[in-house]
């Protein structure tokens, strides 16, 4: 009996010894998995916290997430810079009951060569572009420019339908004021204004003699893609073109402009609108067309390459 008990006890102990390491390993594994789980959860919470912080504090990220175009594409300033050293007049156009926009007519120095309808970019207001307007008027071009709703003295809040309506009504006013002088008409679009310039030209091909684009935007969707701060938002923008303005798209609309000469300018070192965006717009355009590759800051061709710019524009309206 004693021998039998010893053998049974020894066998049982031996059996437990054999399985004990596996039990210990299982316990250790549970601890490791628990640590990994908590670590992963903490990282997720930290990520959510960081994302929420940037969403609340970074207007651009918030605008991209919410597709808030009034903050995503438009950066107006209300304060007007001094333009007393330029000969100009200003007018007010009533767009809607609560919307009034200001337009500016800059008088050409000497004999006037042509009339330019200038559509400025997303930032500032007309006065912010004085350094680009001066070379034009000093070389014989009359310039008509407008401030969209929300820009400068103009009332309202900018949005893609509103700024296009402002541009169309201003262009009608421009045509009324310049028809009698029988000079040629140039539509000149800068950056975001390039989209409106293309649309205006497409819709008024019997009234426009030259289209000039400098640092033009390709589309509203391309802006969202290029400025997306994280890959997720970039992919979201790429996969959802319907989320963005389709009423006027420069890279699409320019293909419908037939016989009007086009001068498309884009700087290879442009940090605001990638060089290939301007090239895409050019590739979509019909002849006659010219692509002028520069190395200036964004839309600064008239300021930095005045003589060449004036020569190219003048030659295209002869």
From TrEMBL:
Keywords: Hydrolase, Membrane, Transmembrane, Transmembrane helix. Pfam families: Hydrolase_4 (PF12146). The chain crosses the membrane at residues 35-55. Residues 111-216 form the Serine aminopeptidase S33 domain. One of its GO terms (molecular function) is hydrolase activity. This is Alpha/beta hydrolase.
């Amino acid at each position: 009996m004693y021998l039998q008990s010893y053998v049974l006890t020894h066998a049982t102990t031996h059996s437990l010894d054999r399985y004990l390491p596996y039990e210990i390993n299982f316990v250790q594994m549970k601890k490791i998995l628990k640590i990994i789980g908590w670590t992963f959860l903490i990282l997720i919470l930290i990520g959510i916290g960081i994302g929420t912080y940037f969403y609340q504090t970074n207007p651009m990220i918030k605008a991209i997430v919410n597709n808030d175009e009034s903050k995503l594409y438009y950066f107006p300033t209300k304060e007007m810079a001094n333009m007393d050293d330029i000969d100009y007049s200003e007018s007010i156009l009533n767009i809607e009951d609560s919307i009034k926009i200001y337009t500016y007519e800059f008088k050409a120095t000497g004999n006037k060569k042509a009339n330019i309808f200038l559509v400025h970019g997303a930032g500032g207001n007309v006065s912010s572009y004085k350094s680009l307007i001066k070379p034009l008027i000093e070389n014989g071009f009359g310039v008509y420019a407008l401030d969209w709703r929300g820009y400068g003295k103009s009332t309202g809040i900018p949005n893609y339908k509103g700024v296009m309506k402002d541009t169309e009504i201003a262009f009608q006013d421009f045509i009324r004021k310049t028809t009698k002088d029988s000079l040629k008409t140039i539509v000149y679009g800068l950056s975001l204004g390039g989209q409106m310039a293309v649309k205006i030209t497409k819709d008024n091909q019997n009234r426009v003699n030259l289209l000039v684009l400098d640092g033009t935007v390709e589309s509203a969707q391309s802006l969202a893609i290029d400025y997306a701060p994280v890959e997720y938002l970039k992919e979201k923008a790429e996969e959802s073109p319907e989320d963005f303005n389709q009423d006027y798209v420069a890279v699409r609309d320019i293909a419908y402009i037939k016989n009007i000469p086009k001068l498309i300018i884009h700087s290879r070192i442009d940090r605001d609108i990638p060089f290939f965006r301007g090239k895409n717009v050019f590739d979509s355009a019909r002849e006659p067309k010219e692509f002028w590759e520069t190395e200036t800051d964004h839309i600064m061709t008239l300021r930095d390459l005045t003589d060449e710019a004036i020569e190219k524009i003048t030659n295209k309206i002869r």
